[in-house]
Task: structure prediction
Amino acid sequence: MRLIPEIDAFKDELTSWRRHLHENPELGYEERDTARFVAEKLRAFGVDEVHEGIGETGVVGVLRAGKGEGSVLFRADMDALPIEEETNLPYASKRPGTMHACGHDGHTTMLLGAARHLAASRDFDGTVYLMFQPAEEGKGGAKAMLDEGLLERFPAERVFGLHNWPSLPFGRFAMPETAAMAAVDEFLITLTGKGGHAAMPHQTRDPLLAGCGLVQALQGIVSRETDPLDRAVLSVTTFNAGHAHNVIPETATIGGTVRSFLPETRARIEERIQAVADALALAHRVSAETSYRHGYPATVNHPAEAGIGADAAARVVGEDGVERAPLPAMVAEDFAYLLEAKPGSYVWMGTGGEAGLHSPHFDFNDEALPIGASYWVRLASALLPAA
Ligand code: NI
Result:
């Protein structure tokens, strides 16, 4: 491990910031105290410009050094989750039902740590944009910032993101070369028949039986209609119908999630869900209404930037500590929108630990704070080498 010595020297401060954020979590688009904390810190470090209120609560710091024209954007997320914390830590959430269970408190702290060091050292040539986004957890805070002109106001040539990954051993980095995380969509199908007495089914049109057939038929879409070498998931996760043992219900609803990487696969699955629902409905004399909601697109790294990022990580944790072509994960991430707009890459940083992301027992591993902050600084030097 080769941490940046100055960052390692203020490790205790990083830990205290992280624990302060952990104690005071805020949900997506409500990160007012967090954003204020970030902006105050950036100003105290002497960051050249601090812009607040982008995409509701987003903050961007601008750091310049030298005469270079190059520019890069580093992104951290600030939001917490609607989870009741069960860690019993002395710095556990003070806000009932809200918890930093995904380590965004750590992400924010690591980027602040890098900002402090870069503002003091100015050991790069060009512009570093420090993006602190709201609402990564399903509410598209990155998209909200892009929609408010993020990349016009802060025209970064390249973009980089990072997420802690407890299942990866502490101190390891995994940087996918291309596809990192999946596109995520949701569907909800409402089957409407004719309710009636369970003893006289011939006088009804049973949406529940249609739904049973539909759940099975939907499983044929990925298994029979997509390329096995491509990756996709269709999971039915809700099936609601009926309320009494002697009543055939009028409606049944079936919902689920779809994960995919290629846009054509995504479009194909959407089209087939609709068609399969319509066909099953016809077979069972019920009607089907399908709604399909597009979530985040796939997070796809750009190979050149993934290589630069992996090299920067190797300068901190050694080449042995870097996985340069890990398999993608079927989870999703709104950094995808930034990677659609600009070349860049997204990395998983191993933090170890028992509890997984989104667990009520999760706590970001503070030992990783100087590692992540050192990674950002090494990446800035690699992308914008000082003259
Ligand atoms: Ni997260």
